[in-house]
Amino acid sequence: MKARMELVCPAGTPATLRAAVQAGADAVYCGFRDETNARNFPGLNFSPNELAEGVRFAHDHGSKVLVAINTFARVDDVDIWKKAADAAVKSGADAIIAADFAVLDHVARNHKQIRLHLSVQAAAATPEAIGFYAAHFGIRRVVLPRILSLQEIAALNRAIGVETEAFVFGGLCVMIEGRCYLSSYATGKSPNLNGVCSPPEMVSYDEEPSGTTARLSGFTIDRYARGQPVGYPTLCKGKFKAGGKTSHLFEDPVSLNAGGMIAGLKAAGVTALKIEGRQRGKGYVSEVVRAFRKAVDAVEQGGDAVDIDRLLAGQSEGARQTAGAYEKKWR
Amino acid sequence: MSQIAPTEIALPEIAPPEIALTLGPVFFHWSADRLLDFYRRIADEAPIERVHVGEVVCGKRMPFSDPVWPAVIERLERGGKQVVLSTLAAPATVRERKGLEDICGDERLVEINDVSGLPSRSGKIFVTGPFLNVYNEASARFLIQLGARTICPPVELSFAAIGAMSLKCPEAEFEIFAFGRLPLALSGRCYHARIHGLHKDSCQFTCERDPDGLAVDTLDDQQFLAVNGVQTLSNQVQAFCPAPDALASKAIRRLRLSPQACDMVEAARIYRRLADGRDEPEDARFSLSCLDLPGTLVDGYAYAKPGWQVTVTA
């Protein structure tokens, strides 16, 4: 009998951390209030003291805290990233999630007591890449890039000696994470450099005769007829013209819901299931975590797939959803 | 955490000029004949010291291009070029991973574009390409310990940031992506297939129709991006034209030119004159703007601005 799968949930604020823990998260992941984490948004994230309090709360309730220090350190400022790692260790957190060789090397050399998880931003998708990170930095878990099918994950798990964590819900990057510079090309700010993608300060919604046009840094990303709901202009979810066709070329404006894949992911040997959304409010996180808690427990007890789907119905916020690359036809 | 001391391997003796030019790998799905013609001209006519060969973007294309590489390499080496074997940016299948391992065992210089290549290349010297994330001096030093001797950082890094790394890591040469459509993203999904209503697994190689990539415009007809199978590039063409003194002040000794369908021999001559101080940056930019390019010239990334911006006009 394989071990029970771990449910890893997002927390952008201390209140959300408590909400996620109370809703049944096995682990909560969060970051510091600076550019060291990939959700560097105003009003989000933790001070070192808030993190320490959050860790105490989580541990008191039997949950773990994972700290994301998963952007790439800026030249001449690597110490900011190293100090963030030191602060995470000091807080008593259970693991650090990192992608940059500089951060991984620092933690591996100086903080052997803490678990290292390889961030999805490292985009390690082969036994060779994962083995390299394990051999050099002693990583214990890899967060899988969202480009692998269930069969590929199963094959990967047979070939590697570390745990895997797979995204099951929330925002969906269509590009390989950590290797996408679309945002900096348009706006000057990117996930790797600044911990942001398609940043809000570069967004404009212009009322025009044909409807509302959503632009990013002056580039038209999508247009909505009057009365149509207006979406956020995330670059890779935009509507573009190519080859004589107008379409959502890269990806439709969908989010990931692999709730129906939980049993498959378990069969593929995945250790932990991750919910995206550190930018989300505590009400949303609470509700999603509670639903996934029930779904994971149902899968663990050999529950019926239809019942599990029902548990997760209503988690879409009216938006369209996809199971992403877990199904091969997505490619 | 065992570190193997990199063994220096024998490379062709080439007295490098102050600032060397590198021709990067071809990102696009060019036919075997086109590749042979292209590299024949590069070997005979281009003032370039180092030439990358090999498929970087899509492993499915390899059965088409693999047969031409031995002849291409022979021709380039006969022409006095140092050849670098480039490797896949996102290897996935068993065949791709095995192919990567084989290339990593080669005695020639190899370009690593994914961490998957590091285990089999560590201990031998190598180049890191723009798909490998090297953002700071600590990461660069880590890779240098493993054998990295030329580092071409991701395209979104500024000249100032690359220069700062270069000054702190004298053990490696830093190379700047100076010319060509900028490689901005990779996906598990093939956009050429998607545009043509196909899946990646049965893609029919429609990417071959677009030797510079397929333009992606906004709904308001702004030129923006280009797709090339699983890769997304800028629509605009990077044209970073630094004065040689500016490069020397940061100990940067290499500029990378990325192949486009335009006259690359002429592009190389323009950069050679710039690097030798025979042409001013504005002359180089003007000459580049006269080439048959798929987009307008940009250089924003080099100056820590959005990549599509132009800091100096031709």
Please name the defining characteristics of this protein.
heterodimer; A: 331 residues; alpha/beta; TIM Barrel; 2 domains; eight-stranded parallel barrel; three-stranded antiparallel β-sheet; 11 helices; 33% helix; B: 314 residues; eight-stranded parallel beta barrel
Write the layout of secondary structure elements.
The complex is a heterodimer of chains A (331) and B (314).
Chain A: E1 6-10, H1 14-22, E2 27-30, H2 48-60, E3 64-69, H3 78-90, E4 95-98, H4 101-110, E5 115-118, H5 127-137, E6 141-143, H6 150-159, E7 163-170, H7 182-187, H8 191-194, E8 203-208, E9 211-216, E10 219-224, E11 240-242, E12 245-247, E13 254-257, H9 262-267, E14 272-275, H10 282-300, H11 305-312, E15 320-322
Parallel strand pairs in A: 1-2, 1-14, 2-3, 3-4, 4-5, 5-6, 6-7, 7-14, 13-15
Antiparallel strand pairs in A: 7-13, 8-9, 9-10, 11-12
Helix pairs in contact in A: 1-2, 1-10, 3-4, 10-11
Chain B: E1 20-23, H1 32-45, E2 50-53, H2 62-65, H3 69-78, E3 82-86, H4 94-104, E4 109-112, H5 118-121, E5 126-128, H6 137-146, E6 148-151, H7 159-168, E7 173-186, H8 191-195, E8 214-218, E9 223-228, E10 231-239, H9 244-249, E11 254-257, H10 264-275, H11 281-289, E12 297-298
Parallel strand pairs in B: 1-2, 1-11, 2-3, 3-4, 4-5, 5-6, 6-7, 7-11, 10-12
Antiparallel strand pairs in B: 7-10, 8-9, 9-10
Helix pairs in contact in B: 1-3, 10-11
CATH class of the largest domain in chain A reads Alpha Beta
Supply the CATH class of chain B: Alpha Beta
Count of separate DSSP helical elements of chain A? 11
Structural class determined from secondary elements of chain B: alpha/beta
Give the mean pLDDT of chain B. 94
Spatial strand sequence of the major β-sheet of chain B: 1-2-3-4-5-6-7-11
- Please provide the ordered H/E string of secondary-structure elements of chain A: EHEHEHEHEHEHEHHEEEEEEHEHHE
The parts of chain A where pLDDT drops under 50 for at least 5 residues are none
Q: Give the overall shape of chain A.
A: globular
Radius of gyration of chain B: 18 Å
Q: On the 0-100 scale, what is the average pLDDT of chain A?
A: 93
Terminus-to-terminus distance of chain A: 33 Å
The level of helicity of chain A is 25-40%
Largest interface: A-B, 76 and 68 residues
Tell me what portion of residues of chain A adopts beta-strand conformation. Answer: 15-25%
What would CATH call the architecture of the largest domain in chain A?
Alpha-Beta Barrel
E-strand count of chain B: 12
Residue stretches of chain B low in confidence (pLDDT < 50, at least 5 long) are: none
The name CATH uses for the topology of chain B is: TIM Barrel
Class by helix and strand content of chain A?
alpha/beta
Strand tally of chain A? 15
